[in-house]
Amino acid sequence: MLNLTNVQIVYDNTIEAVREASLSVGKGSIVALLGSNGAGKSTTLKGICGVLYPEDGEIKGGQIIFEGRPLAGLPPDEIVRTGAVMVPEGRRLFDQLTVEENLVMGGYTRSRADAKRQIDMVYSLFPRLVNKRTTVSGYLSGGEQQMVAIGRALMSAPKLLMLDEPTLGLAPQITEEIFEIVARLCRQDGMGILLVEQNAQMALAIADYGYIMENGRVVLDGPADKMLRNE
Ligand code: ADP
Ligand code: ADP
């Protein structure tokens, strides 16, 4: 469903954050995008979602095709409507808004009735959030905030969910819970998942396929189980 071919992204016309990124995510598959800090993973996700700052980060080359349609140049809200949605690193919730209000914000592409149904779907996926629906999100634990952030992204019923370091700073127990839900979205709903993680072991354990970036380039890729064995 998603194909990147030789994507190049430059900041300030000088910093080549992404030099050569080629990768694919198929329907119903979990793809891990791995690599050390500064490798270009976040920038790649931002490029796909059209959220590079204007006049700062710029796609200089290559192709980003989602469901047969080029994404580069489309505004971010248009990209959300195509079904490609990102949960940014650091969650970025509206801290003063309640859990439910945050979810509502993610449903802006939908009718009221659809949004209502989608909110119920999110609560069924994250039972922990049910009795927190009127809690101000700034008061939630890190893990709960991550669940709200993922739930908010799911409000637009995406076909492709991109997660930027979703488990950063979270306890192993919560990480496991979140990964289980992500795997379920993929296996049950056929959602494509692009998972950016620094913890390669953990990510490859739930992924089907992996890519490793280094200095802005995809330097290695392969089936996740094979990558796990070789590490
Ligand atoms: P990763 O997600 O793999 O840690 P990033 O995509 O965040 O890597 O960063 C890739 C490179 O681009 C790094 O050298 C980083 O410092 C640089 N970079 C990221 N964002 C910006 C920005 N807004 N302006 C300039 N350079 C940036
Ligand atoms: P992210 O991985 O989302 O880029 P970071 O913590 O690396 O998060 O960066 C925080 C903010 O600073 C982001 O908006 C990012 O684009 C920007 N940034 C990252 N590296 C640089 C850099 N070298 N120069 C300027 N801005 C940067």
UniProtKB/TrEMBL annotation:
The keyword Cell membrane applies. Residues 2-231 form the ABC transporter domain. SMART domains: AAA. InterPro entries: AAA+_ATPase (IPR003593), ABC_transporter-like_ATP-bd (IPR003439), ABC_transporter-like_CS (IPR017871), BCAA_Transport_ATP-bd_LivF (IPR052156), P-loop_NTPase (IPR027417). Pfam families: ABC_tran (PF00005). One of its GO terms (molecular function) is ATP binding. Belongs to the ABC transporter superfamily. This is High-affinity branched-chain amino acid transport ATP-binding protein LivF. It comes from Hydrogenophaga pseudoflava.
